[in-house]
Amino acid sequence: MSAFSAQAAGPTADGGGVLAVVRRGWRALAWYVTGVLGESDYQRYVAHLRRVHPDAVVPTVREYWRERYAEQDANPGARCC
User: Fold this and answer.
1) Residue 81 falls inside a structural domain
2) For the chain, how big is the Rg over CA atoms in Å?
3) What domain of life (predicted)?
């Protein structure tokens, strides 16, 4: 068996392998998509409120999105439409 065949046959020394690479790629894709869609925005906002404004009332997810969309409609900023 050549050195190349031995390297290509099994997982890498750090416990990687094809399945680990696929999992890592899937997690990166999921992280990107949820970031683009704004899914993690609510969690970040709640963390900010608890850290900076500990006495503030934390809105529900529904209230958060309703306020956010109302703010975007009232102040469109630099968007095309």
Assistant:
1) no
2) 22
3) Bacteria
